[in-house]
Amino acid sequence: MAERSFAKEVQKLRMGAGETFHGEGILAITKALLENGVGYVGGYQGAPISHLMDVLADAQDILGELGVHFEASASEATAAAMLAASVHYPIRGAVTFKSTVGTNVASDALANLASGGVTGGALVIVGEDYGEGSSIMQERSHAFAMKSQIWLLDPRPNLPSIVESVRHGFELSEASNTPVMMQVRIRGCHVHGRFTASDNKRPGMSVRDALENPRRDTNRIVLPPASFLHEQEKINKRLPQAMDYIRKNNVNEFFGPDEAKVGIVLQGGMYNAVLRALQRIGLADIYGETKVPLYVLNCVYPLLNDEFLDFCAGKDAVLVVEEGQPDYIEQAFGSMLYKAGGTTKLIGKGPFPMAGEYTGQVMLDGIRTFLDEHGGGILPSKGRAPNTPLPTDSIQQLQTKVPMRPPGFCTGCPERPIFAATKLVEQELGKHHIASDIGCHLFSINAPFELGATTMGYGLGPASASAFNDKNAERRSISFVGDGGFWHNGLTSSVGNAVFNRNDGVIVIVDNYYSAATGGQDVLSSRADNRSKSTKHPIAKAVKGMGVEWVRQIDRTYDVGKLKATLKEALTTEESGPKVIIASSECMLNRQRREKPLKQAALKAGERVVRPRFGVDEDVCTGDHACMRLSGCPSLSVKQLDDPLRDDPVASIDQSCVGCGNCGEVADAAVLCPSFYRADLIQNPTSVDRFADRLRRKVIGWLKNRRERSRLVFAEN
Amino acid sequence: MTIHRLPDLPTDGVDATTSIIKIAILAVGGQGGGVLTDWVIDLAEHAGYRAQSTSVAGVAQRTGATIYYVEMTPDGGRDPVFSLSPAPGDVDILIAAELMEAGRAVMRGFVTPDRTTLIASAHRVLAVSEKIVPGDGRADAPGVTEAVAAAAHRLVCFDMEQVAVDAGSVISSSLFGALAGSGALPFEREAYEATIRRSGRGVEASLRAFNAACDLALAGGKTPAVAVPEAVKAEARDPEGPEALVSEWRALRSMVGDLPAPVQDMAGRGLRKVVDYQDLAYGRDYLDHLKKVIAIDDAAHEWRLSIEAAKYIANALVYDDIIRVADLKTRASREARLRREQGIGGDAIAHVTEYFHPRMQEICGTLPVRLGRWIESSPRVFGALDKVFNRGRRIRTDGIVGFGMLYGIATLKPARRRLLRHEVEMKHMAQWLETALSVRDINYDLAVEVLKCRRLIKGYSDTHERGLSKYRRVMDGLPMIRHREDAADWLRRLREAALLDEEGKALDGALKTIETL
Predict the structure, then answer these.
(1) ipTM above 0.90, yes or no
(2) Which residues of chain A lie closer than 8 angstroms to B78, CB-CB?
(3) Does residue B170 form part of some domain?
(4) Do A273 and B84 touch (CB under 8 A)?
(5) Per the domain annotation, does A597 fall within a domain?
(6) In this complex, do B131 and A632 lie within 8 Å of one another by their Cβ atoms?
(7) Which of A453, B40, B286, B387 has the fewest C-beta atoms lying within 10 Å of its C-beta?
(8) Same domain, yes or no: A299 and A185
(9) B65, part of any domain
(10) Residues 6+ apart with CB under 8 A from B145
(11) Are residues B168 and B198 in the same domain?
(12) Does residue B43 fall inside a structural domain?
């Protein structure tokens, strides 16, 4: 079950022609797929398109009614390979994943798909994870389109444009027998807006029709001599067809006056940001009427020579607004202009930085600089004035005071004790080379754990420690991989590789029952019943099947002592070959979401329910905070006591504590102070509970009274 | 898109977006920033506005800083082109769900004195980096409040988390209330309430928090003064107990009145702590130690040495041992506090588990001096016993057996002075006092700083040992600086460095520096 439920929102997907659809960008994309008669959909979750996968999963009934097949693919490569269904059959297919990391994984299949070409429209929706809020290396998907001759759409970030772009995507793909990528940026995915819906369309040919009437064509398979023909076909046939479609269907848009000394060419995704800059310097109104001509590239690959050169005609200078690097578009335009003997000045990187996001400020500065230098007086005098001065004194004052707040493990996260145990083992056995992977567990690199030296890709944690395979070394490497990464790629690339190459390192598989970092989607080893997926396939079985001899399954990660002992054993045992520890406990976010309603129902029904929560005895705590250096839990914080005898703030646990047990376990395993306690509130107690409680109160009360009668008892502060 | 109207462009150079209200919301993951954003959109759309929201939700639920952005403008029948992200110097309303996030917003330029109404909750959600410092790593909240106030056009700042908790709701409701009360949006209070009602979940609690926060914002963020009856401070009250002991306490307490006035407050607290820890005789010892310091102190130095001595001698006498923990955990007051803090009623059944991990060192400390010494001096015996005793113990103090065990340990209290740990602690205290007093005539301020170094020693087991070793290393630095005029300053720096990190890296650096002096 995913973290966020779209069960209510997906009902909007049933809307018919003329109705106004309100919602998030990703929901609009889903609706557009249905309106365009898509036959099958797949993908792999990951921000910013995680919710697109969740929407599709929650919309399975609606998809089913329309005869659309949906699949949560095992990886982006699987998703891309799924598009093979559109090679011979006129079925429209769409897949989605995070980019560029997902596109990296998918690129093998994408390249093969692009070589042979497609019959049915094949659309790859990539969530361009670039700029603020991104969790990956800063690269562009653009290069994938260019290298494989896949067309790349980059629609303006509003719902009508995105919906329109999906239609163009399918039609362009069919018109040119080429797969099409559509990129949506982080904020575009999450923008709330509206568009006018059309009726949903059943696919012209369903996957069932295709299965029952198989076709083949050797010429579409990537093997010589066809592969050589494919290259010729891409350039001589499909590319002109694509350009033709883009031109005839006005995929790219023009705004503003026909005649002007300057103009701006921009990626569709940059439209709102460019407009805002023009609005702020008084060259556009809030509805987008602009004094500066704009050439908006809703398709950024391929580019149309004639369209661009026409736009340049009569202009002294043209600014290219292209976010990120390298500046592929600017280079292409430069080449076009040069070859055509054009005299228009081409400006882009220069006023704009080569690297980094085009934020509001960067955009304003870049456009203002361009207009100031080349605008021939179009820039209003006020627009030339500097911005509102920022409160520099305050900013300087704050620079040293405001702490960073990197993301970390949630309250009660079952991964926290794994890293607490690792830190404790390192305190005994010394530092080790630790390889990290992608997933929530990568938060281990931050304080308070600061464990992990590299992250090389999803499921590649152990693979990235494969060089550290020296039988004479006195220490072993430790590598982490999550259950998500394990099933995505880790089983073969990491575990299989370690077995095959006789790596002695320690592999910790962090199993939290979900693909948790992307929003709690199920994976093969999830413990939940899933209506449409096969779950409950133990990781241990897979690992053993791969040939690992030394496997330890730990079913409660909160047992820090046991984890510590197991890790120590793995690091010191004489046995050769990889040592695999599977540390399993359910993701606390998802567990709370799952258990809360059950507990409430049980409470209402009068059943016995225990509410565990931790606390700290403030008079026992001495304020060293050693416990926090093994935790970092949001519910464990510090507070200042109203006592001048005490210097340092003491530990304190707030009401958000879920009673996971890490605090107590760590206090024990690390031999910390005895200030932690767990208080279990027994709700709806049984008669046995009540009897025992009465007896205990009587005896303990008597003892307490007895002592307090003979000593001085001071009131608490 | 075909446009039939003639472009109605702004006049030369005027910012066309002045009719757009721009709102940025900065929150910590899990604070309900998404809910608040949806409310603002709902509010705007029902008031005849066109609105757009975006967010960066990548790791929103995972405790990181997260940002939502809303733009709205009166509905002109066409779709405006809104921006998808806030720009520095171009934000009308900034809502920060935590104080440091308000600071971050100012740093990013989203708060400017010419236009931004800053609505910030004054409460703190501490970052990990603030919590893991062995000393006090908390950021300077008053400094941040001052800086954000200077940066904002208007500031509405109070503890909105507390308002929400008091109303049984979450902070999104009180932030929404503060937004309404700020008057920064052109909507009536009733419109906000209608939005909350439309949301349909936890409406009553949300409205309570909303209204409380709205009223507070209208009142300028100040909590209305509630007349609290002047309670007698706990530390001024006499303890309860047998008549003989109480009158003896009064006699002892009255001796504090004979001390120099500036020392009395701290000495009174110290005495109370020490007597509570052991007995009245221990309290007399405390005052005797203190008087020795007072004897060489004077009013010209404002009795600073004595005040620090009153504080740290008490702390040194009240060392943390198993007996103390057992005593504290078996008190009636402890159970009352636990129930209060955990929201467990007096009649409700609570099972309480304590986490103990005594090592053999702690056990030895609780033995008579000679026996303890003998075990410590024999690695074989020590090792064998360590195997038996050194392990984690979960003790149920609501149960008769568990409680009885701790209660039994606490009965060792009268014997404490004869135990090994006491001897060690007293020896250590004597050395520390001796060191401080020995430099008093050379450098008064340095003597004060030496006393303050006692702060480094805290905790149990490993933590205690680490603290002790840091204390020693700081004190080892003393001979290198003691004859310098600025010795006190250097010792303070050493101590502060020692409190910065666990391993003492900062301290090593500071020690290296003084070697080069």
Answers:
(1) yes
(2) 287
(3) yes
(4) yes
(5) no
(6) yes
(7) B387
(8) no
(9) yes
(10) B99, B122, B157
(11) yes
(12) yes
Q: E strand or H helix at A650, and its extent?
A: strand A650-653
Shortest Cα distance, chain B CAs vs residue A650, angstroms: 9
Q: Is residue B331 domain-shared with residue B415, that is, in the same domain? A: yes
Q: Which domain holds residue A44?
A: 15-248
Going by the DSSP 8-state scheme, the letter that residue B104 receives in this structure is H
- Is A694 an 8 Å CB contact of chain B? no
Binned average pLDDT, 10 residues per bin, chain B of 517 residues:
41 82 89 90 96 76 77 95 95 96 95 96 94 94 95 96 94 97 97 95 94 94 54 71 95 96 96 97 98 96 97 97 96 95 94 94 93 94 92 94 97 96 97 96 96 93 90 94 93 95 92 89
Residue A300 shares a structural domain with residue A202? no
Q: Do A186 and B58 touch (CB under 8 A)?
A: yes
**Cis amide leading into A196 (omega within 30):** no
How far apart (Å, rounded) are the C-alpha atoms in residues A595 and B195?
Answer: 30
Q: What is the mean pLDDT of each run of 10 residues along chain A (717 residues)?
A: 78 95 93 97 92 90 94 97 98 97 98 98 97 93 98 98 98 98 95 95 95 96 96 98 98 96 98 97 96 98 98 97 98 98 97 97 96 90 66 91 90 96 97 96 95 97 97 96 97 98 98 90 93 94 98 97 97 97 96 93 96 96 93 93 94 94 93 94 97 97 94 86
8 Å CB contact between B245 and B280? yes
Q: Which residue of A has its CA nearest to B332?
A: A704
Contact list in A for residue B159 (CB cut-off 8 A) is: none
Partner residues linked to B52 by β-bridges: B71
How far is the alpha carbon of B128 from chain A, nearest alpha carbon, in Å? 6
Looking at the 3D structure of chain A, how many domains does it have? 4
A399 assigned to some structural domain: no
Distance (Å) of CA A435 to CA A414, A465, A478: 19, 6, 6
Count of domains forming chain B: 4
Q: Check whether residue A543 and residue A613 sit in a common domain.
A: no
B199: its two tokens: 């949301």
How high is the pLDDT of residue A387? 62
Task: Collect all residues of chain A within an 8 Å Cβ-Cβ radius of residue B104.
Answer: 398, 402, 405
**What span, in angstroms and rounded, lies between the C-alpha atoms of A111 and A158?**
30
Q: Residues A57, A62, A67, A68: is their CA dihedral positive or negative?
A: negative
Task: Say how far apart CA A70 and CA A72 lie, in whole Å.
Answer: 7
Retrieve residue B482's tokens: 């003691």
Q: Is A438 part of the contact surface with chain B (CB cutoff 8 Å)?
A: no
Query: Domain of B407?
Result: 325-420
Tell me if B63 and A191 make a contact (CB, 8 A cut-off).
Answer: no
Instruction: Using an 8 Å CB-CB cutoff, list chain A residues near B63.
Output: 405, 407-410, 634
How far is the C-alpha of A168 from the C-alpha of A268, rounded, in Å? 14
Query: What is the rounded (10 degree) CA torsion for B58, B64, B65, B66?
Result: 20
- Which residue among B52, B136, B150 places its CB closest to the CB of A193? B52
CA B364 centroid distance within chain: 34
Tens of pLDDT along B275-294?
A: 999 999 999 999 999 999 99
CB A582, CB A555: distance < 8 Å: no
Q: How many helices (DSSP H) and strands (DSSP E) are in chain A?
A: 26, 24
Q: Per residue, what are the HEC states of A454-492?
A: EECCCCCCCHHHCCCCCCCCCCCCEEEEEHHHHHHHHHH
Q: Which residues contact B21 (CB under 8 A, 6 or more apart)?
A: B71, B72, B73, B92, B93, B185
In the numeric block, which tokens belong to residue A428?
């005994």
Query: Are residues A398 and B148, on separate chains, in Cβ contact within 8 Å?
Result: yes
Please indicate if any CB of chain A lies within 8 Å of the CB of B278: no
Signed CA dihedral, A211, A216, A221, A227: sign only: negative
Kindly report the pTM of this predicted structure.
0.94
Contact with chain B for residue A677, Cβ under 8 A: yes
